[in-house]
Amino acid sequence: MNSGGFGFNFGNDDDDDDRRRDQNPFGAFGFGGANGSGGLGDMLNQFGQMLSGMGSSMNSSDSPDPVNYSLAQRIARQQIGQSAEVTQQELTAVQEATRLADLWLDDATDLSTASGRVVAWNAENWLTETLPMWQRLVTPVAQHMNEAQLESLPEEAREMMGPMLQMMGQMSGMNFGMQLGNALGDLAKQALTGSDFGLPVAPAEVTALLPANINRAASDLNIPHQDVMVYIAARETARQRLYRHVPWLVEQLVSSVEEYAAGLVIDTSHIEEATRELNLESGDPAAIQDAMSRLQGMDLSPRITSRNANAVSRLETLLALVEGWVEHVVTVAMAERIPSTVAMTEAWRRRRATGGSAEHAFAKIVGIEFSAPKVAEAAELWRRVDTAVGQQRRDKIWEHPDFLPSAEHLDNSAEFIDSLLDDGGSDEFDEEFAKLEEMLRGESSSSDEGKEADDDQDSNDDPEGDANR
């Protein structure tokens, strides 16, 4: 399998239907299968396997979580296997690379260093430390998915399932936990930093690199390992500067996921329409056999949509802007210092294109599918903004989400830059007008002082007049 540089892949399958089914963490109750699979038989078979292998999870105390996270952790750790402990030498290499990258970034951005802790993780550390944020992202989606599944059932079916709802909830939580564990285990073995692709899953004020994973990735490139380490440290350090100095950024990413989840809907209308057309009520054996053969070629999986689909668009744009900004400032900081910077940036782009990207991580772990963020377009936009208005005004754009470019601006950066220049012209005019007002006030003040001085002089020149008065 071609790693495309940086060795990050999600194992893309040539069969799109199989890939979607494998990546969909919402296959509970048989939902999510394609080509007629995922029915009651498959569901019961999977449930039996879970019961035989995970009996302790079923017997555990009730949990309010819609995902069995303890099961997810066990499966992820089994998939990770034995992780070698981070050595002091690896930690020192990470700290030195981060310190050097941080120093260089001072020339490329007005956002100051993020400070905090610089740490080196292995795959198991990554799992443990990032799981709390993954829970924040996954829980609302899983919760609303459960609710949407129940709402999609006929009222009679819901009434019949009443006594079984607790068991079905446990089954759903286990199913989510199994798929989440497999996805996290896969990602832990391939992650290079604590916030790959603009996803702030590491704890706050922690800059984390995974030296073992970075060294494996560097082996695919004809570039010195230390250069790769500094480059990846620079990308991670740049992200941490954003997270520290843009306080709304992390919450905006999380709230977009929560808003999407709140609008989840399961649409089964196409299944009902297909079964009506099959005319199964005719009682004709030949017609029924023909209908069954036609069913084999149909996709009877419910369609999962959200009434708040615009939240995904905002998430996609925000991720593009974050990673585009990171790519631009890292290139500015390093291009003249490390000649291989351009080659490493291209390798990072290939990494995104071959599966190592935010949208693949969200699809596998959180269960939200969206188009690939336009990172290259965003990087070019930030470069043009930098040229047009300078580094300081470029970074001030992050002060409020309303100042950021929109999705349309990624394809038409000239419009956004024109708006900045118009604002800049207005600001310059206001500054000049303020200077003029200050100058006029100064002249008026001087004139008044001169007049008062003249009056005093006149009084001194006419003492008799004063006496007469």
Automatic annotation (TrEMBL):
It comes from Corynebacterium alimapuense. Residues 1-33, 439-469 are annotated as: Disordered. This is Hydrolase. Transmembrane segments: none annotated. NCBIfam families: putative hydrolase (TIGR03624). Residues 451-469 have a biased composition (Acidic residues). Gene3D superfamilies: Zincin-like metallopeptidase, N-terminal domain. Keywords: Hydrolase. InterPro entries: Zinicin_2 (IPR018766), Zinicin_2_N (IPR042271). Signal peptide: none annotated. One of its GO terms (molecular function) is hydrolase activity.
